[in-house]
Write a structure and sequence with these properties.
It is a single chain. This protein is mostly helical and 106 residues long. It has one domain. Helices cover 59% and strands 0% of the residues. The protein starts with 9 loop residues before the first helix and ends in a 7-residue tail after the last helix.
């Protein structure tokens, strides 16, 4: 699935969130094992992880609702974009949240 397109199904949308959670975990691991960083995980990474977990939990329990405003993690994405290699994935999750699933394209 190209990141230029919103997901077409709820399953694809959930997978995007799952993928973002894996990316956060991998980025944390790279900070923890990088000799220069020596475990200096940026505080925003923990916050972002919790926000993604909360989003995923709401999808799992059926309480998730699409919205018109940015998801809470977008402030961090906008502020630290250059330090988040998967910022485009997070932006697409946010775009889907605001615009809904892409049910019109073929």
């Amino acid at each position: 699935m190209a990141l230029s397109l919103r997901p077409k199904t709820a399953q694809q949308y959930v997978k995007m969130v799952d993928d973002a959670m894996v990316e956060v975990d991998e980025l944390r691991s790279s900070y923890e094992y990088d000799a220069e960083e020596m475990g200096n995980v940026p505080p925003y990474l923990n916050t972002m992880e919790q926000m993604l977990k909360d989003l995923r939990a709401s999808m799992a329990d059926g309480s998730y609702e699409f919205g018109k405003t940015d998801l809470p993690f977008m402030d961090m994405v906008n502020r630290f974009r250059s330090r988040i290699p998967f910022a485009d994935l997070l932006a697409m999750i946010n775009k889907t949240h605001k615009e809904g699933l892409d049910t019109e394209s073929e």
